[in-house]
């Protein structure tokens, strides 16, 4: 999407003169590009994509490293005589200044930077880089060397079709006041902070995270980076794998590796494109999954487990998730002492009203997730949850991986209830991708009674 410029002027600062352009972005914020030299021609330029930090950038706060990263990146660009800083108005990793200060209060009480956000009902990182990609395209920049310590930023830009030929570390030596904060960023958000000295950092060639399919998957990831939540629930992607004969597990629900290596990378990339990931308790009992992003770059989505009867095992791997506190959604009928036990093991219990069958009411759960800041949610299974989601038409996008095998196992879906009595759910103008040996079918469900166009925009 072309992004209109609102105004521009030359701005001399200590390190040199930058052309300063304000963009009229579709999110209503005044994002800024500081550029030096000719960017559209020549080798990939040095670029900093900087998120606004009033406390660090303007006041020089010692709680973070932002102000120094901004100054250092401008210095490096001036030294090269060429490059750009995009100053994005994403204060507090997208949650705004007041919420960031609330997060600071929680950090003073012992929460780390990730848990503080989550405690306040936000995603650990609420930013997206769609505007940045549009501005870069407007500047004629399609490939760049990115000054960042954050691999998720590299991954996000790559998904948006900007080629990051190198990641240039921008490590600021810690101060006593921000040592713990920087450690938390490294430990919990995967920031690469071990280059000891700013002056020594050199560009590192970025190895593409996952040898995922072909560029033909870009429209899918591009779509995911642009979708916005509805008011009543997050944008929901239903993603699961099945064999040619429709099985998602071996007989008796025994686990089965269905998709190949390439599709696993693809699935991890999908996970990284979502704020949260939801599975039913059956999947936890059968597979004990970690639900993390391991085979792609990116931040782990918030795991959410639907567990009406609170059967969650006390030794499940999700209780030692490396970056997130697992959210277990249950009902007021669940055993209170079991709830307390799981809480003492680090889970967060979400008590949700029951539906007519005394299960977690999925619409109510989705509304709660939305209220907690989840903008997009990936639902990975299992059969019961998939069936309910399709029955109640609670999804916006389907991503189905079909592996070329016959299993004769447990069907991906439980027998449909209400669906049988209603119009069938069709995927509108589906897209087909080959990923390794597997076939990925993706598309939006047709809205009942709508034309193809409307369904596609759903
Ligand atoms: N919510 C929240 N935001 C913070 C906190 N500390 C800094 N920020 C914001 O974080 C943003 C910068 O993100 P960082 O995580 O420092 O770094 P990054 O942009 O992901 O990665 P780099 O490119 O390496 O700087 C700015 O918008 C800051 O205002 C915090 O404790 N909580
Ligand atoms: Zn900061």
Automatic annotation (TrEMBL):
Q: What is its EC number?
A: 3.5.4.25
Q: Which UniProt keywords apply?
A: GTP-binding, Hydrolase, Metal-binding, Nucleotide-binding, Riboflavin biosynthesis, Zinc
Q: Which residues of the sequence carry a binding annotation for GTP? A: 48-52, 69, 91-93, 113, 148, 153
Gene3D superfamilies given for it? Dihydrofolate Reductase, subunit A, GTP cyclohydrolase II
Entry keyword annotation includes Zinc: yes
Give the family this protein belongs to, as stated in its UniProt record.
Belongs to the GTP cyclohydrolase II family.
Instruction: Please give the name of this protein.
Output: GTP cyclohydrolase-2
> Which source organism?
Tahibacter amnicola
Name the gene behind this protein: ribA
């Amino acid at each position: 999407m072309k992004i209109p410029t609102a105004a521009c002027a030359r701005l001399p600062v200590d390190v040199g003169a930058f052309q300063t352009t304000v963009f009229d972005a579709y999110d209503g914020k005044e994002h800024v590009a500081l550029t030096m030299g000719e960017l559209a021609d020549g080798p990939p330029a040095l670029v900093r994509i900087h998120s606004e930090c009033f406390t660090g950038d303007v006041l020089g706060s010692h709680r973070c490293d932002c102000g120094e990263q901004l100054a250092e990146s401008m210095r490096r660009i001036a030294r090269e005589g060429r490059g750009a800083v995009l100053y994005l108005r994403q204060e507090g990793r997208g949650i705004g200044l007041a919420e960031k200060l609330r997060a600071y209060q929680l950090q003073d009480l012992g929460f780390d930077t990730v848990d503080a956000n989550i405690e306040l009902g936000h995603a650990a990182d609420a930013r997206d880089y769609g505007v940045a990609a549009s501005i870069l395209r407007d500047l004629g920049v399609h490939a760049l060397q990115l000054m960042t310590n954050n691999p998720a930023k590299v991954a996000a830009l790559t998904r948006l079709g900007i080629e990051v030929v190198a990641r240039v570390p921008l490590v600021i030596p810690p101060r006593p006041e921000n040592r713990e904060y920087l450690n938390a960023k490294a430990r919990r958000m995967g920031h690469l902070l071990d280059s000891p000295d700013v002056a020594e950092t050199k560009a590192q060639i970025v190895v593409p995270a996952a040898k995922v399919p072909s560029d033909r998957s870009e429209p899918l990831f591009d779509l995911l980076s642009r979708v916005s939540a509805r008011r009543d629930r997050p944008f929901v992607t239903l993603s699961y794998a099945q064999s040619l004969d429709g099985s998602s597990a071996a007989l008796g629900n025994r686990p089965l590796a269905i998709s190949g290596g390439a599709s696993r990378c693809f699935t991890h990339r999908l996970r990284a494109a979502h704020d949260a990931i939801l599975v039913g308790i059956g999947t936890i009992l059968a597979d004990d999954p970690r639900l993390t992003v391991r085979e792609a770059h990116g931040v782990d989505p918030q795991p959410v487990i639907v567990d009406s009867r609170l059967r969650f095992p006390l030794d499940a791997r999700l209780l030692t998730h490396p970056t997130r506190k697992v959210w277990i959604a249950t009902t007021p009928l669940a055993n209170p002492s079991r709830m307390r036990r799981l809480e003492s093991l680090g889970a967060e219990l979400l008590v949700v009203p029951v539906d007519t069958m005394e299960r977690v009411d999925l619409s109510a759960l989705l509304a709660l997730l939305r209220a907690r800041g989840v903008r997009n949610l990936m639902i990975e299974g299992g059969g019961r949850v998939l069936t309910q989601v399709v029955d109640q038409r609670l999804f916006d996008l389907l991503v189905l991986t079909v592996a070329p095998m016959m299993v004769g196992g447990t069907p991906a879906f439980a027998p449909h209830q209400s669906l049988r009595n209603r119009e069938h759910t069709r995927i509108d103008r589906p897209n087909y991708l080959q990923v390794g040996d597997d076939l990925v079918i993706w598309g939006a469900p047709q809205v009942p009674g709508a034309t193809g166009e409307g369904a596609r925009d759903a």
